[in-house]
Specification:
The protein is built from five helices and five strands, in the order βαβαβαβαβα. By secondary structure, it is of the alpha/beta class.
C-alpha cells in the first residue's frame, strides 16, 4: 500500500497474550491497551500456535511458561520455526527459565508480575511504540 503525502497509518498494533490464568491475561491486556495495542488472548501455547496457523497476525506475543496442553517455551520454539517475525516477550514467575526461553526464540524475558514501565521500555526498544 502506497501512502499519499500527509496520510498516516492508523493501524493499531496487535498483541497476543498467552497465559492459562485469566487474571494475568486481563492485567497484561490492560497494560498493552493503555499503550494503544489491540489484544487477543490464548489460554495455552497450543491455542497460540493454532491462532498463528489460522492466519492471524500479531506484532507482539506475551508468553507465559507454565501452561497446560503446551508450555510457553515449546510454543515459542514452534512459532519461531513457523517463521513468526513478531516480538515475543517471555513472562514467568521463575527467572531460572530465561536461558531456555531465549534459546527457544524469545526476544525479551520478564518475571511476573509484569511491570508496565518495563514493558513500555521494551516496546520502545523494539520500536513498536514511539
Amino acid at each position: 500500500m502506497v501512502m499519499e503525502i500527509g496520510e498516516c497509518s492508523t493501524r493499531r498494533l496487535k498483541a497476543l497474550i498467552v497465559d492459562d490464568k485469566n487474571i494475568e491475561r486481563k492485567i497484561n491486556g490492560r497494560a498493552l491497551r493503555n499503550l494503544n495495542f489491540e489484544t487477543v488472548e490464548a489460554i495455552n501455547g497450543q491455542d497460540a500456535v493454532v491462532r498463528v496457523l489460522s492466519g492471524e497476525t500479531f506484532d507482539l506475543v506475551i508468553m507465559d511458561r507454565s501452561m497446560p496442553v503446551m508450555d510457553g517455551v515449546t510454543a515459542t520454539k514452534i512459532l519461531r520455526e513457523m517463521g513468526g517475525k513478531f516480538k515475543i516477550i517471555a513472562l514467568t514467575s521463575d527467572a531460572e527459565f530465561k536461558d531456555e526461553f531465549t534459546a527457544a526464540g524469545a526476544d525479551k524475558f520478564f518475571t511476573k508480575p509484569l511491570d508496565p514501565k518495563e514493558l513500555e521500555e521494551a516496546l520502545r526498544k523494539f520500536e513498536l511504540i514511539a
